[in-house]
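Sample pair:
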Amino acid sequence: MANTNVLQLRSSPKTSPRKRHVTKAAIIRRHAPAAGLGAVILVLLYLSLSHLAHGVQIVTGCEAWEGMAMAIGLDLLIVGLECAMVATAGTKAYKPVARFANPALVVAFMWSAGLNAFAFSAASAALWMAVTAASLGASIPALIYAGTRAWAALAISARA
């Protein structure tokens, strides 16, 4: 006798897994926030670099290229270290990176904020204008720091 309670399953032809088709519009939508924020950070970096270089030149009497090299070193160190901190968050590498990145960030941030504040306020004659200009100058590295932290997180999540 035949076993009537067993159903024979149809064998399905082997099919290749579907490849996800990603359109250019989807890629742009996914990366647009990071690109926009990155553009704003670049503008702030340009502003910071020019004033920071001017501040270094005023204080040290160095050549223009030396002031710009110092400015690039300080501000891009802030950006690079913060990107490293965000990229390694949640990994084994975070503690060793943070061990050296955090103190370097504090020092670079203080120098950048101080020299930007000095350069912004150097031409102010009135005290209230000097204080306002110094506050504006000191806030630029803080904006770069916060923007870089957000940008790195956006860029990483857009790639996922």
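The chain is about 75% helix and 0% strand.
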